[in-house]
Write a structure and sequence with these properties.
- This protein is of the alpha/beta class.
- It is built from three helices and five strands.
- The protein has a single domain, classed as 3 Solenoid (Pectate Lyase C-like).
- Helix 3 links the parallel strand 4 and strand 5.
Length: about 190
């Protein structure tokens, strides 16, 4: 009996997503409250797909196009978003902890009330993204383009902004270190009282 259960256990660990949810997503372009955890969705065109309130933890979206995708309330913990297009995507209230997102395109993305911790967003294009009320902790924005982005009610003190473009980036009630503040001023960031 034990010999039968071990392979079955390993196969469920390797493929923890719901196969029917993946099929429904790819056929209907809509999948709400789905379990797509650990699925390989790399190199796909998923633009304008609706994947709200879903378990997307560990999903490989690398090199995929999620232009204007609706992802509100989804859990993307541990997802691979490297070189993924999330231009104008709605990531409101998403969980983005331990995400690999080097080279991600988040231009104009909505990240309001998102939780972003221990994630790598270095070398990324994040122009005009909205981080209002996002919980940001230990995020690497190294050499990213954050021009005209909104950081309202955030704490960036333990995040890396080194080398980032902060031209016209708006900061309102955002906690920064003295070095971050001086760097942002030199980049012509806007501080709103």
């Amino acid at each position: 009996m034990r010999k039968i259960l071990l392979p079955l256990l390993f196969s469920t660990l390797l493929f923890s997503f719901d196969k029917q949810d993946v099929e429904r997503l790819l056929e209907e372009e809509v999948c709400q409250n789905c379990d797509l955890s650990d699925a390989n969705l790399s190199h796909l065109d998923l633009s304008i797909f609706e994947i709200q309130d879903s378990n997307l933890s560990g999903v490989d979206f690398s090199h995929s196009n999620l232009f204007m995708a609706e992802l509100q309330g989804s859990n993307l913990e541990g997802a691979n978003l490297e070189n993924t297009i999330l231009w104008k995507a709605d990531l409101t209230s998403c969980k983005l902890n331990n995400v690999k997102a080097k080279g991600v395109n988040l231009k104009g993305a909505k990240l309001k009330k998102a939780i972003i911790e221990n994630s790598d967003l270095s070398y990324s294009s994040i122009w005009k993204a909205d981080f209002t009320h996002a919980e940001i902790k230990n995020v690497n924005f190294y050499n990213s383009e954050l021009g005209d982005a909104k950081f309202y009610e955030n704490d960036l003190r333990d995040s890396n902004l080194t080398g980032s473009i902060l031209y016209k980036t708006k900061f309102k009630n955002t906690h920064l270190t003295k070095e971050q503040y001086n760097y942002a001023k030199s980049e012509e960031a806007i501080f709103i009282k």
